[in-house]
Amino acid sequence: MFQPSGPWYKVLYIQVLIAILIGILVGWLWPGVGTSSWVKALGDGFIKLIKMVIAPIIFCTVVSGIAHVQDARKVGRVGVKALLYFEIVSTFALVLGLVMGNLVQAGHGLAPRADAAAVANYVKRAEGQKAVDFLLNIIPDSVVGALARGDVLQVLLFAILFGFSLMALGERGERMRGLVDDAAQAVFGVIRIVMKAAPIGAFGAMAYTIGEFGPSALGKLIGLVALFYVTAGLFVLIVLGLIARLVGFSILKFIVYIKDELLIVLGTSSSESALPQLMEKLERLGCSKPVVGLVVPTGYSFNLDGTNIYMTLATLFIAQALGVDLNFGQQLTILVVAMLTSKGASGVTGAGFVTLAATLTVVSPELVPGIAIVFSIDKFMSEVRALTNIIGNGIAAVFVSWWEGELDHVSLHAQLK
Fold first, then answer.
1. pLDDT tens digit string along 175-210?
2. For 249, which DSSP code?
3. How far apart are the first and last CA of the chain?
4. Which parts of the chain span the membrane according to its record (predicted)?
5. The domain that contains 361 carries what CATH number?
């Protein structure tokens, strides 16, 4: 049984949970207050505070993880294992979404009001989202620009190259390695300060959401929302649960272990908002530092399980709502296209919707107008997308550490007791 240290009202996850509940009440009872620019700014401001340190955290942890490894082949081996794991587990997520969508067929008989104007921006952003462009965009125009924009993949690429460069320097790079390590600790210190504002951010984000869409929005297209929640839950408990059991721990205990991070994600709808704290907790859990430094940042672009489930499930839902019958071949196309387009989502709020637009554009142009069908409730599915993504990336880091033979089982069982 979890026993919080100190007064209950000083425990972060309790503060965040209370803030979310208050935010729901304010948005419901006083929607004018909930939708005010100042309340909205509380949520937006907290996410910006977190995002400002994402790039430095990724750079420092990846560089440190690689630079401290004596064997360059190990870094390549970890990378290959991580990508192999990502693709296999992502395929399970995509297939589960297709299976549940075909079994339940929640879209049949729906005739919702389509707000095409509201989704025009997402469709426009999705039009240029091609595989070739995605690969080219991994290469930054400048390192400074990548860090300034906080582009995860671009920063990751430079960090990997810089880490290998420091590794090749040997003893001459010792001072720089120490500097990077110290910088990482300093940035984690910034995160600990910023996290004190998590309840305020969660309140603002939730109050604005309920105030903007109204409590009735929670009942719109409830079939799809409920189906997505159930499917994501099955994926976490069964697929990720089996992986966790293979390593030797309980998925439920792991979820309890990262509950602070999950509640922050729940309030902000962005899995990136908890990335730095997740990496720190995974190291305390017994995961190898080099593995955490490589797997977790990479997973935020290549291991988005919640986004994968959402895309196949939502695509089938839209097709059913529009009366479009998709044959087996077309559904296989959805699987392949979604596997590619999901790599462009980075865990930021709305990214899953953009990738859905990109998937529909490629699979069948006649489905594109149906994007508006799920727009009004996308906000209420983005939380589960983000929650599933962060749990999936945490399990990935533990599994790859175990696969590498670098998982401290003593620490693992001590933290998850």
1. 888 888 888 778 878 877 877 887 888 788 778 867
2. S
3. 9
4. 12-30, 50-70, 82-104, 152-169, 190-210, 222-244, 309-328, 348-374
5. 1.10.3860.10
